[in-house]
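ok so heres the complex, two chains, lmk if somethin looks off
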Amino acid sequence: DTAVSQTPKYLVTQMGNDKSIKCEQNLGHDTMYWYKQDSKKFLKIMFSYNNKELIINETVPNRFSPKSPDKAHLNLHINSLELGDSAVYFCASSQDPWTGKETQYFGPGTRLLVL
Amino acid sequence: TQLLEQSPQFLSIQEGENLTVYCNSSSVFSSLQWYRQEPGEGPVLLVTVVTGGEVKKLKRLTFQFGDARKDSSLHITAAQPGDTGLYLCAGDTGVDSNYQLIWGAGTKLIIKP
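and the predicted structre for the whole thing:
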């Protein structure tokens, strides 16, 4: 049973295209996150949703738009893809963002390559 | 800007050796987590340290949180090839209204048989 799943695992696309990455968690958690891990392995938070509401929106181009249809899903849509968007995108979830002791469970990542 | 610096960035040693990796910041964290990430996978939590000076052991791995809660170390005794991976530390800012984990860039560890 996969706790946090992402699709697709690999995504190769041309500049200017629009693509979506899907994330689902079956842990019953209230909070989900999107992270970007660059080639230097820095994990940077992009968005966080709690019970379908946006609670963290870091400085991310507005070409990136998260959508949470329900608290088990957090999808990431990217418009007009650019070369610099190439990275590994991780989805994660945790029970509650506000206790400060949360364990975040990560998905396997989506490797995006923009050509 | 809060930063977590990890050192060394890269470490390659022989099986059986001991090693320590460090996670340092000028900021105080209410807790700090260590993760291991294997190639092609997401990070997996190893431990959370909460109290200044706290020491936690996970088999051959010993984690310590600095007294001032600004730094942490991970010591591995008698390293094995299965310990190979990217070790990431992440600190909790403890801000109620905008929860974030601050991540280090990781230490890439290779244990050679």
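quick notes: The mean pLDDT of chain A is 88. thats all i got rn
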